[in-house]
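Exercise 7. Predict the joint structure of the components listed below.
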Amino acid sequence: MIRPHRSHPLWFAFALHRVSGLGLALFLPAHFYLLSLALTDPVSLDSYLALAENPLVKVAEFGLVFLLAVHFFGGLRLMALEWLPWSGRQKSLAAGAVAAAFFVSGTFFLQAV
Amino acid sequence: MGRDELDVSIWRGDANGGRFEDFKVPAQDSQTVLDVVSWVQQNEDPTLSYRYACRVGMCGSCAMMVNGVPRWTCRTHVKKVLDGQKVTVAPLRNLPVIKDLATDMDPFFDKWVKAAGVHHPSKTRDDPIEAVNPASPARVEADTGIECINCSVCYAACDTVTGNADYLGPAALQRAWTLYNDAKDADQQTILDAVSGNGGCHNCHSQGSCTLYCPNELNPMKAIAGLKRATAASFFKRRK
Ligand code: HEM
Ligand code: SF4
Ligand code: SF4
Ligand code: FES
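Solution:
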């Protein structure tokens, strides 16, 4: 259970930023490795790309795009918080970052199916 | 259990550990969490240790974890925080426990000094007093932080303190930011150096628990963002 002192929007924004950052750090090496197969082993790249037709993989891709987008927009919010004149609307901005990430990853998903 | 009785769980123990003890406390109008704790000490167990002084939100000595959240107990009405009829009271997080609800606040105060949170005089007693323009932007900024009562609520709320024992914490950093903006403080560079080391302002992840729970509605998260900007600006200036 989430400890009581943590259950507020900006703490959730922090947790989401950490989880998405770690998720990206785990995923990106695999992603670049797969792309490198285009040069070193095109046949096995094609067999991996065939996997991408699987609906489960499409949902997973949606998740990854969401992680990237939410980390990107959340990171922009944090950089604005630190570098621009203070704004008291951090909760709304954090919610906006999540909404923008859903918009981007949702659009990606609809394009993919 | 009657409607007018509270189920109170109070942490008992010392630095070596402890456990919660349950008490029944009669409910009253306008009863604060501190009233509840005092009732237990006066009527059930005189050995219960806790700390308070002013009872009006001035001294900053009565903070405790109430249902898992740090609060000034003298100004927290128990009705506002009851979970059914139940309330749990524990010593503040992130500080060593002396006994029961009393924590050792030394690390918290020591960090004020470490963050250069002491006055660096710009004049001697023979000079005329420096006029401070209350409308200047720096003074307006400093004013937003000066009502701190040193209660350590923000320090107990901060997970970055939990993760890094050297982290100066929200209150000390906010104090540094206040002095940095004070026209009467002569040593801004010392302040920036003190807050940009290992335990400094750049550890903050902007979780905002400090700002959410500060009973005086101060905004240490904003002060820390100001320090991050000022330290970074001075870093690039000095490299030129
Ligand atoms: C797309 C542009 C990106 C932006 C704008 C961005 C921004 C940020 C910011 C501002 C932080 C500091 C958060 C804090 O103080 O708590 C951060 C943390 C982090 N980022 Fe990124 N980032 C980006 C891309 C990435 C990528 C591609 C990865 C993965 C390789 C990544 C992994 C991480 C990790 C692991 C953390 C630490 C999280 C934490 O301390 O809570 N980031 N990012
Ligand atoms: S904003 Fe920074 S100082 Fe305040 S609780 Fe969060 S991590 Fe701690
Ligand atoms: S900043 Fe607020 S919560 Fe922190 S010590 Fe000062 S008054 Fe207490
Ligand atoms: S007893 Fe002084 S602030 Fe609560």
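Discussion. The mean pLDDT of chain B is 95.
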